Amino acid sequence: MNWTIYLSGEIHTNWREQIMAGAKTNKLPVSFTSAVTDHEASDAAGDVLGDENDDYWRDHKSSKVNAIRTKTLIENCDLAIVRFGDKYKQWNAAFEAGLCAAMDTPYITLHDESIIHPLKEVDAAAMAWAKTPEEIVEILKYVTTAKAV
Asked: Where are the domains of the chain?
């Protein structure tokens, strides 16, 4: 089986690349999909529907267009990894974790110990909590091969 892994959340560090490199190094049977990681492109996703004078409506249209992608990718993944960084509040990542929980899509959270408390409900619904991309790769090794690490 080839697993499809959806990568959600924080876009300011290279955690996605670390996980993808670890999966490639270990020859894991996985492919990756992701939320849009280009902040400006994500913000402008709805601009094709017309100019807006009000930022609320621009954001509203863009979030709807972005949701076509994220909802479809989450529906079609086998597992999601949801990354929370400590610099910005990732409301979109929390929403996507909730979407995974509602759709019964297994997910793993990835964040450091300093934000355990604000993520307690998100972590409670997760299948696992990891602190590093390396831990995620180790989980993927086991899950995809059924061999102890």
From this structure: 3-40+67-145
Tell how strand 79-83 and strand 107-110 pair up.
Answer: parallel
Task: Name the pTM for this structure.
Answer: 0.93
pLDDT digits (tens), the chain, 149 positions: 899 999 999 998 999 999 999 999 999 999 999 989 999 999 999 999 999 999 999 999 999 999 999 999 999 999 999 999 987 778 889 999 999 999 999 999 999 999 999 999 999 999 999 999 999 999 999 999 987 66
Rounded distance between C-alpha atoms, residue 61 and residue 48, angstroms: 9
Phi, psi of 88, rounded to the nearest 5 degrees: -125, 155
The CATH topology of domain 3-40+67-145 is Rossmann fold (3.40.50)
What stretches of the chain show up as alpha helix (H) in DSSP? Answer: 15-25, 39-43, 55-75, 91-103, 120-125, 133-145
Sheet holding 107-110, edge to edge: 30-34, 3-9, 79-83, 107-110, 128-130
Taking a C-beta distance cutoff of 8 angstroms, is the pair 22, 134 a contact? yes
